[in-house]
Write a structure and sequence with these properties.
Shape: rod-shaped
Largest sheet: none
Order of helices and strands: HH
Strand content: under 5%
Number of helices: 2
Low-confidence stretches: none
Length: 105
């Protein structure tokens, strides 16, 4: 379904560019060659679609890099919490051992 939609969008863009180039070609020559109009339209359509793909890709990269940075920050915070919890656990164990040693003497 996605490929069909992409194909239809590509046809719509090509037809729009072809129509515009056909009208512009009439300004330069009285009898424009359809072959050159089609070739120029294909090239222009490809450039438009490439530009659109680049813009979409850059926005997606920006979005996901921000999300990755946020997740890395959360992981660091959780790691610090775990480290602090183990430090407290270790301190409690040391105090318990001291208490046991003091009561045995």
């Amino acid at each position: 379904m996605k490929k069909i939609f992409e194909f239809l969008i590509m046809l719509i863009i090509f037809y729009g560019v072809y129509s515009a180039f056909q009208k512009v070609a009439l300004l330069f020559t009285s009898l424009p060659s359809d072959l050159w109009v089609v070739i120029a339209s294909l090239i222009a359509s490809a450039l438009i679609l490439s530009l659109y793909a680049i813009l979409v890709r850059s926005s997606i990269i920006e979005k996901y890099s921000a999300k990755i940075k946020k997740l890395e920050k959360e992981v660091k915070e959780k790691d610090q919490e775990v480290h602090d919890a183990f430090k407290i656990k270790h301190d409690v164990e040391d105090e318990a051992e001291k208490t046991i040693v003091d009561t045995n003497e």
